[in-house]
Automatic annotation (TrEMBL):
Signal peptide: none
The reaction(s) this protein catalyses: L-fucose + ATP = beta-L-fucose 1-phosphate + ADP + H(+)
Single GO MF annotation: fucokinase activity
Keywords, in A-Z order: ATP-binding, Kinase, Nucleotide-binding, Transferase
Protein name in UniProt: L-fucose kinase
Domain GHMP kinase N-terminal: 293-369
Purpose: Takes part in the salvage pathway for reutilization of fucose from the degradation of oligosaccharides.
Amino acid sequence: QLDFQDDTFKTFRWREAWRLSLKEVMSLTHQEAELQWREELMFLAGRREWVMAAVLGGQQGALLQTLDSRAELGVAARCLSCIADVLVCMAGGKGGLRSGPAANKAWSPAYSLLEEGNLRGGVKALAEQRAHWLSRPDLLVRAARHYEGAGQVLLRQAVMSSQRFISIGQGEVPPLEEWQEVECPARLDLAGGWSDTPPIAFEHGGSVTNVAVKVDGKRPIGARARRIREPRLLLVSYAGGRDSEVATETVCDSLDDLRDYCQPHAPGALLKAVCVCSGLVSLSSQHPLGDQLMQRWGGGVELHSWSVLPTGSGLGTSSILAGALLAAVYSCTGRTYNTDSLIHGVLYLEQILTTGGGWQDQVGGLVGGVKVGRSRASLPLQVEQHLLLVYTGKTRLARNLLQDVVRSWYSRQPSMVQNAQQLVENSEECARACSLRRLGVCLDRSWLQKKLMAPGCEPASVRVMMDALRPLVLGQSLAGAGGGGFLYLLTREPRQREAVLQVLHNTTGLRDFSIHSVELDMDGIQVLLQS
């Protein structure tokens, strides 16, 4: 009886229930919210650890074979990075740090094939060598490092194709002993930084809005070069300004003295790379260094470089300095060039130097004024009275930062892909900003995007500093990739140096900071003739 009554009640409820057509259901739903949820669901599915699932399911062999088979140029570098992901996952959290050296000679034949352009042969050789590195966690991690190194070889080749845009002519060679001096401003990246970084730059597209600036009224970066009678290369790098007493001098009397140009920490590596990149000498020539210099230029070359900015400033020093050095060498040997050639020349140089990097630093420092990196458009804002630089006293220790970002991009982490698009959108919005308030919003948004791109780039002391300064500013961000260096402020009121200084002095735990004025540089790179 109870069951019968229960069934009767259910039947009654069913008969009394509303009946809606699909059209009526659609009219009662929030379609925009539904579509947004489906998009979020797609990203949630994308976040699933498919590599971990394959390894735990014993399918790592099949997964590696599938990735090995994808040897097309467009996806090869990403596949190599994914193979590194699988190898690290197979190590099970053991075997040491993923970032580390990748110079075991056993992998050299595979690297050589990749550098020669034999993609399929190189990938096959990598797979054959990998088979000997699967027995222990430490070997798996080391193999992963070598796969990432192979990916970097392909990345370098892609970026070095920019060499085709370098156009150098030959003009009148200046007299012996006549200095050709070059000065450059620093750069502040207002929005879009990281979107210029390969492979993001050529897989997604980038846009960076930045500005060339003088620091404390001076262009802080410079170089000079002259021909000398002795058939050798004399390379001098000043730790401070042009007339600093602290300098590193490197003398190259033979081609062997130049061969470590691709090791960034070797003495004079940047200046040596400039000598090779600029065509000053040829390392593949059968003629000795002295003979090449005398035959081509009638003598040797003395090359000096300097920057008054501290190491790790975040103001694009190394790339801008490379552009200044190239311009100085071209000028002292009578060769003609344009700014586009310098920009692409620096891209090429940083690849053979193996430091990598994007294009926004040299665009920011070699081209004057405020501009969008994707084009020559400029902003009509006069903002220098509202800009201040604060040196945080913390040097950026971003040794593996670029590698971590590239790794995340190749893994296509949804947050990374979404942030890359937002970087570009913020740069475009910054370029259209018609008020200081809107520009400040773009700066703040840019800093949030940098932190998403590279977690850990905000030291605790910098966070304290930014929180303390918040009432005085419309927007603020660490320059470059973050991690320390220079903090730039867009203040609510003009000429706020003393107010900023007072706030920082009254904030507990802050020390070793300094405040610097900023002035827009509308000229960019300048060549100064000196006797």
